[in-house]
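Input record (one chain):
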Amino acid sequence: MKQPQLFTLIKSMNKSEKGYFKKYSSRHVIGGENDYITLFNVIEKQDEYDETRLLKKLKKEKFIGHLAVLKKYLYKLILKSLRSYYEESSLDFQIKSWLAEVSILYERGLPDQAAKILQKAKRIAADNEKIILLQEVNEWERKLLKNELYKDQTPEQLAALETEQDLLLCKSGCINKFLSLSERTFFADYHLDSERKKIEMKKLSSELDDLYKGTNAAHTSFQSDFIYYRILNKHATILEPQSNPVDLKKKLLRLLESHPEAILNDPDSYVVTLFNILAGAEHMVDVPEQIEILNKIHEFENVNRKFLSFKNQLKIFSYLSIIRTHLFISTAAFDEAKDYVNTHLLKEMKKYEPKINNYDKTVLNFNILVIHFGSQDLKNALRWSNKIINEHSENIVEDVYATTKLLNIVIHYELKNILTMPSLIISAERYFRSKPEFSKSVLIFLQGFKNIILSNGHEKVTNTEAFGYLKKNLDEAIRLNPNDLLLKNFDFMAWLDSKIQRRSFSEVLKEKRKNNTPGDTLTDLQNSAA
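The corresponding structure, as predicted from the sequence alone:
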């Protein structure tokens, strides 16, 4: 059920914003501040909006007769308080506030005072490449000069203003072109199947190259460069998945870190960039460096928490949780991972889960599933795999969903739920045959399981020769198709080795990856989660 706007607005506020609202309300509302705060507090305590419970809680309040009106005014008051709150912390808000003051002074016939504030706004906007705001500054400069009948101005100075606006328009147009390519790129990534996506990405990559080569360097800006590298990274990820373009991602990071004011204005992009260095290149960035980046995000969150909106806190929680669980899995530290999940992650998820987007939620749920599987907590592994399968949404993280269907069969096998497995295998075969983008390795895997379970009978399930034969077939299929889905999200080959060698999955995986795992890094990782 869709929740009321007032409820969702209040729920989106962080602790600092709520505290500021209460102070703002007491300062700016005369005679009715207690009513607003009372209503705010009652709504804020609800997990889901319940009008009946709300009326019951407020039945003794004098304002109950005009509750609908009060809710509308409360909504507007919260927005005013948030606007005031971010005027103190957001550069864009500060510049816009100065421009509002310029307008007020101009209308009061005080152009000299307006000009002083305008110059301050121009200096800050120029230092931070606020192209759109600089265009508004330029318009005000011209308006003030016209008001003074161009006193003490030369034709050259007036021409300079025109040239300045032309340059700003060119920079803005450049940003717009790159932005259009970015939107088309990410639309294709989210909505096209793999083959159509590759075709579209090749076309867009060619357009991007032409645009970049044809762009005058004077017309570029931090924003256009940032968008360019984001698109370049996405194209490389789709068209050259084996290349792991870490250098491209690090260029984007260096660009951001050379503009610290941009990070504060858009913390989401900074965190996403750090996350992408890890998510796309775990085999090319060693564990200590991954943990260094992880801690960099954590430190950024701690230092800037009061300036972060709920949206950005939510993003950081999602990324940090995905990174941490992924690192635990990639280093086969399943016991430490399970402790982190049970003592920290699940508690935090209660706060954020309703607002986490489907993509991040699915990836995080999958990581928790793998952690339980790796720690041999098979019942919880089955619970999380069923959760992913039952909550599946078409075109949302399809590869993770597909891997989960395979892993679900493995979990049932480990639990000796043999009677359940034939129907699961048939269901999975039907699913994969309807998805031509998935490789033959998947069907080989399923056929191997079918042969073991259906043909040989339960007494031969643990036959090492059967698992060895399946592994041999998969090795050959994967050799022909190294980008196979089968190895992308879960190391099924390590699991097959564990059955052949009669060892635990965790032990086999840890041995495979021990060369990438310094001895003390996992402790560091666990400590950084606090």
